[in-house]
Amino acid sequence: MKPPLLINIWRTPERASQLSLKEWELLLRQARASDLGASLWLKLPIQVRQQAPQQAQAHFGNQLMLAERQQQCVRFEIQQIAKAVSSKQQPVTLLKGAAYQALGLPVAQGRTFSDIDLLVARENIADTEKNLMLAGWLRGKISDYDERYYRTWMHEIPPLYHRRRGSVIDLHHNLLPPSTTPLDSQSLRSAARPLPGFPSLSTLAPEDILLHSACHLFHEGEFERGLRGLCDLDQLVRHFQSAQEDLLLRAVARAEEIGLGRSLFYALRYAERRLGTPVPAAVQQACRPFAPAKPLLRIMDWAFNRVLVPHHASCDDLAFRVSRFLLYVRGHYLRMPPSLLIPHLLHKAFLTPIIKWREQRVAERKGASTKLNSL
C-alpha cells in the first residue's frame, strides 16, 4: 500500500522541496485533517520552508501561529491549575500535551491542544474536582446516564469547562478504564517527577510518558487523530533515545510490570513501519513476547496500516472504512467487558435519542408558553 503524501514527507522532510503546487495543497489538506500542520512545518528544513510556494508559507505559517497561541494559553492554564489544586495532597500529575509543554519536550513544538489531562488518586478525585470548580472549572451539561457511566466505569470524570476562558480539563484517576485493563495507578504516581517551580504538580517518569502515549493510541476506538498520536510517539522515542540510550529497554520492563506490553509492541511496530522511527534490534527482540498470535497480528497490521493515515478524502477508500469500523468495535471492547458494553451500546443507540427528543419537546413547549405569556 502506497503511503500518503503526509507520511512520506514526515519520514523524509527534505523531499518537500520537490513538491509541485498541487502537491503542496494536498499536503496542507492532509496535515490539517491530521492536526499536524504546525508540527510538520517545523519538521521541514529551514531552506525548504523558505523555498516553499508563498501560498504554502502563508497557510502553514497561520497554523504555526495558532499552535504558538495555544501553547501560551496552556502554559497559563498550567499556572492556574497549580494555584487551584492543593499542595498538601500528592501532586497532581500532568498528562500528554500539557506534560510535553511543561517539560519543554520537542514533541510540544507546533502541537495543538483540545484539553488538559490530569491524573490524581481516586480517593482525591472529589477534593481536586471541588478545588478546580472553585477556580472556575465547571461541569458541562450531560445526562444522568452519562454521569453514572463516567464515574462508575471510566478512568476519568466528565470534562470540566472553565466558565470564562473555555479551557477544558479531563480529570483522571487512571490511564485506562479499570473494568478491562487494571493498571497500578499508584505505581505511576509514585514514580512521577516533581515539576520544577510548581510544588503541587508533577509529570510521569519518561518511560511512563511513552507508555501512556502508546496505550492512549492503541486502546482508542476513534482514530481521527490517530496519525498525530503516532507522530507523537515517533518524536518521543527519538528524543528519549537521544537523551537516555537505555530508556526503551526500561520502557519494555515497565510495560511488562504494569501490563502495557501489547500497547508498547504496537506503538514501536507501527511507528517504525509507518514513520521510520529508529527502534534498536534489542528492543524489538524484547517486545516480541508482547506480540499477539500471528493470525491476529496480520489482521492488526492490515487494520492499523490503513487507519493510521490522514482522515482526508484522499485516503478514504473501502479498506479505510472497514478498518476504522473494526478498530472502533475493538476500542469499545477494550474499554468495557461485553456484559457492560452491550447494554451501554443499546442505551446509546435507542434510549439516548428518545431522551433527547423528549427534552427537546419539553424545551419547545416551554418556549411556546413563554411566547404566549409575553403577548
Word description of this protein:
It is a single chain. The protein has 375 residues and is α/β, with parallel strands linked by helices. It has one domain (5-365). It is built from 17 helices and seven strands. Strands 3-4-5-2-1-7-6 form a seven-stranded mixed β-sheet. The chain is globular and about 60 Å long. It starts with a helix and ends with a helix.
Structural features:
375 residues, alpha/beta, seven-stranded mixed β-sheet, 17 helices, 7 strands, 62% helix
Give a short overview.
With 375 residues, this protein is α/β, with parallel strands linked by helices. 62% of the residues lie in helices and 7% in strands.
Low-pLDDT ranges: none
What is the succession of H and E elements?
A: HHHHHEHEHEHEEHEEHHHHHHHH
End-to-end C-alpha gap: 66 Å
Which value, in Å, is the CA radius of gyration?
22 Å
Largest sheet: 7 strands, mixed
Number of strands: 7
Task: Set down the secondary structure blueprint.
Layout: H1 5-11, H2 21-33, H3 37-43, H4 46-51, H5 54-84, E1 92-95, H6 96-103, E2 116-119, H7 125-134, E3 137-139, H8 144-153, E4 160-162, E5 168-172, H9 185-190, E6 193-195, E7 198-203, H10 206-218, H11 226-243, H12 247-258, H13 261-275, H14 281-287, H15 294-307, H16 318-335, H17 338-374
Parallel strand pairs: 1-7, 2-5
Antiparallel strand pairs: 1-2, 3-4, 4-5, 6-7
Helix pairs in contact: 3-5, 10-11, 10-12, 10-13, 11-13, 12-13, 15-16
